[in-house]
Amino acid sequence: MTGFRYGVSLYSYTDDFGTVMTLDDAFDHVADTGSTGIEILGETSVPLYPEPPAAWLDHWFAQLDRYKLEPTNFACWVDTRIQIDRNMTVEEGAAQIAQDLRLAHKLGFKFIRPKFGVSDRELTPDPIWEGAVERSLDLAHQLDLVILPEIHAPTPIRHPVTDAYVKFIERTGTKNFGLMIDTGIFQDRPLDAWGGGDFESIKKGAPEMVYGTKVPVEHLADVIQYVPFIQAKFHNIDENLHDHQIPWERIVPMFKTLGYAGYLSSEYEGKRDPWVAIEQVRRQHALIRKLEEEFDAAILETANA
Amino acid sequence: MLERSHIQSTGFRNVGPEGARTGFEVRIRQANYRSSRLSLIEGVDITVDGVLYPADGNLFRLGDREYTREELNQATQTRLYVGDHFTVVVPKEGGLTRGVHLIGSAIRYRHPYFPPEFQPAIVRNERHATIIIP
């Protein structure tokens, strides 16, 4: 029976990283969850990005080896509105993607997630995305990397943003571009804290982010063939392993039914008090592993009946 | 490592010659979860004991280099890394008095992946900090 692969994104440790946590600490926390994959944020985790010192590269590979972790996704950004009075050109966007593909490859990653600038509150990406990505497909192919924009709240699956990415895949026939699902799109109960910025201002400015995008998990079937990686976004799991916003009891069986066997890479985005993220990530792994085992046991039972 | 608050205790001091201070400066950690090209930082407002010193009049220092707001906008390839800090230099004749002050900072980040109406995103912090030498 195929199973999920478990990983952690270092985004989870935002604010701890650089104040109470080093990269070495993070390796220890990630590995101890039983994960096999580590996801980083290029500009955050790599010192002197985009040109880390040689000694750091040696240490990176030594740590991967020591903790038996494989690099999964390398998060990066295409800052389209690069100056207050000027947007990036297609050429600049392609150069940014090429730079991240090369660095991600050097560090052993399989995926990059470029986050493009957007032009509206439905997160429609800057129109340069298509030309910039198309120019990067050959390099991604050479380096054996897949470029993954994320489907992120408040953009649902059934939406022109997702449709445009799928159309691109169908038009080019590429295997080096796909979709990343951020499980925040399934949020169906309100946030009580937000780890992505100031809670009060998001409450006022973007209430849809507080109350949830509430995408039905059945919609995953539309796109799952294009999804090789999932960011397991969550905000608060209590001591009874109850998630207050994300309906894992519906999400996990749907991923299993659809045969998803890639990574679930934890992305904690809740309260940012020191060290809270470490425990929250562990709870999420306990919860998802429990649901996965229950699903597998039920299938076995049916098969044996 | 840095203090958890954005505003750091260390680095809060008067500038200019003793007896003829020209201003003061505040050290602030990178408050974003990723590095920022300096061109994505639209300046930093500072308040001291309720008095506002708007971003336009302040200088931004990273390492040894000082930037005006326009110079920040040009610095597309220079990054403020996570785990690093910068300094805001605020002109104020006479500087600040010895003692504890209530300091506020408001960093204006432009996040291109946020909808246009949320730009710049203003990230605030407030705490007490101490001037030792007037």
UniProtKB/TrEMBL annotation, chain A:
Residues 27-276 form the Xylose isomerase-like TIM barrel domain. Gene3D superfamilies: Divalent-metal-dependent TIM barrel enzymes (3.20.20.150). One of its GO terms (molecular function) is isomerase activity. Keywords: Isomerase. InterPro entries: Xyl_isomerase-like_sf, Xyl_isomerase-like_TIM-brl. SUPFAM superfamilies: Xylose isomerase-like. This is Sugar phosphate isomerase/epimerase. It comes from Novosphingobium aerophilum. The lineage of its organism: Bacteria, Pseudomonadati, Pseudomonadota, Alphaproteobacteria, Sphingomonadales.
TrEMBL record, chain B:
Residues 2-113 form the C-glycoside deglycosidase beta subunit domain. One of its GO terms (molecular function) is lyase activity. Pfam families: CGDB. Keywords: Carbohydrate metabolism, Lyase. InterPro entries: CGDB. It comes from the Bacteria. Belongs to the C-glycoside deglycosidase beta subunit family. This is C-deglycosylation enzyme beta subunit. It comes from Novosphingobium aerophilum. The lineage of its organism: Bacteria, Pseudomonadati, Pseudomonadota, Alphaproteobacteria, Sphingomonadales.
